[in-house]
Every structure is written in C-alpha cells, then in structure tokens.
Amino acid sequence: MNARRVLAVARKEVLHILRDPRSLGMAVAIPVLLLFLFGYALTLDVDNVPVAVWDQSGTPESRDLASRFEGSRYFDVRFSAAGYPEIERAILDREVMAAVVIPRDFAARLAAAPPAPVQFLLDGSDANTATIALGYAEGVAQEYSRDAAARREGVAGNSGPAGLADPMEVRSRVWFNEEMESKNYIVPGLIAVIMMVIAALLTSLTVAREWEQGTMEQLISTPVTGPELIAGKLLPYFALGMLDVLLAVVMGKFLFRVPLRGSVALLFVSAGVFLVGALAMGMLFSIAARSQLLASQLAMMITFLPSFLLSGFVFAIGNMPRPIQAATHVVPARYFVSLLRGIYLKGVGLEVLAGELALLALFGGFVVLAASRKFRKKLE
Fold it and tell me: What is the mean pLDDT of residues 351-359?
C-alpha cells in the first residue's frame, strides 16, 4: 500500500466534504443534535407520579401516611378523592396515575392487629412506569410500617411487655451511579448508537457517489489500488468521527454532568477501533449498492435498529429471549456500549474490558477485509 496514493485519495475526499456543506453538517451537527435531543428526552427516571388520596379514616395515623406520599419526591398528590368514581374518572382523564385508598378502620387495625391493609390503585396502561411507581409506593409503606412498629415498641416498653421489633434492617447503597439517574446510564450508550449510525451513513455515500457521478472509471484508470482507495476514503471520515466523539464526551461531561471515572485515552482508543468497523461497514454498503439512496437506506436499517434495540443501550440483554440474546453477539454496538459504561461509570480498564476491545478490533478487521474483497469483485 502506497502512502502517497492513500493521502491523495484522502485529500480528494476532504475537498469534496468541504465543498458540500450538507455532508459536513451531517457529520458534525447531527450527532450533536441527536445527543442533545435524546439525552434530554430519553429518560427512565420516574418522578412526581401524580396520585390521589382517599382517606376514609381521617385519623392522625392515616394523615401521617398520606403526608409520606406528599413529602416523597417520587409522588405528586393532586387532590383528596371522595370515592372510587372520582378516582376512576381522574385516572381515565389522565389527571392522576395512581390512588392511595386508606380504609375506615386503618388506625384501629394498625393498633390492634398490624399490618393494616392500604389499597394502591395504578393505571397499568403504562406498565413500565406503573411497575416503578409500585416499587416507590411499597418503599413509602415499608418506611411508615417501620416507624409505626418503633412507636408500638416504645409504648409497649413503657407500659408492659415489649412488642416484636423487625428482625432485619436492610441498608442499601448504590455503587457507580449513586444518584440512580438514568442519564448516567443512557448518555454513554447513546454515544455508541449515534456513532454507529452516523459513521455508516457518512461512508455509505462515498463509493456510490463516484459511480453515480461517473468518476469511478477515472479512479480505476489511475495506479490507485482498491485497498488504497478504501483507506484514503476512510481517513477523512475517521477524523470527523473522532471529532464527533470529542464533542460527545465534552457534552456528556459539561452538559449532562455524566461522571467520567475511567481513562480518557482508553475511551478514545476504543472509539477509534469502533469507528474503523462502523465506517468500513458503510463503505461496504456503498460498494454493494452503487446507489447513494439505496446505500444510505441500507446503512440506516442495518445499523440503527440493531444498535438501538439489541446493544443493551435501553433494554437489558439478559431480559431478552435466548435466541435474541444470541443474535446480540453480532451487533458491534453491544461491545462498545459495554466499554463506554465500564469506562464512564465504573472506571475500569483493559484488565476488565480487553475482551470487548478485542471483539471490536476483530469486527473492524473483518469488515475492512470484506469491503476490499467486494470492491475488487466489483471492478472485475
């Protein structure tokens, strides 16, 4: 491979990018825009769930329980209901998503034979949010139950035999994402998905454009070989891709406040290895299609959906059916998402992430080789 010929092809591609503001805008502006929109719009946090409270007891104990929901940052008590018809209407009108129903004999049963039942009604049309809200409600109820048990214990200690205290107290501590904010989990994975899609889209137009404009014959007549042509066309987009990674890292750090605990150098080395494979995949689509429209459609369809759905970016791979779990092993974004989250949140290095980096390097080498062989067959 001749370095001068590779650089000549790269210079030609750079001139084309500079003369085409749309390509430059797609390479730089779109990743920033997508990261901004998805980073703010896509969240798994469930806060301020709107609820109604129907307190049939009207006792200090029931008011104390209701105040626990009012004081929780996870719930927003909208109004006090007067019955099931009002609760049903509020849920149907989407005024509230849940309702707390405290029975008339709540205080008496709490004092005589705990536990006292409390009803928590949920709108199950949004199953994911309902499940999370149910967990929050159970947490509020457990905290109230422990406090009530402590009060009973104190009363029993002053007036007679002591009651039975809770046999175990769980003290939880979250590692690596202490605030449990979904943006810390989403933004690193989002970088991987955006880089995969944009890189493949950029290079999917390169060779197809040469065929459509009739300049491929001129390139073929020069001493430039197929691998040199592919390497020369990849170089400018590799530089643009690394610029996008830099912008994404800066936005993640200063705009979204996502902690970056690991090695910045390892992050960029991993991104470079991943970009080589993603760019070569777009090049392969461009060589196979010979049409910019078809190549861009292939790039979008084959990169976006697998990267979004099967990389573990949003949906945990362990919860997928086993055949789908097996299919995720051929999605390169899966390994890059794992790398980014390990570097960002856990601060781990190659001693843990070497396997993922090796698989990305294997993917990149395979796709570059496939693109070279496909280009040679096209010329023949």
Answer: 94
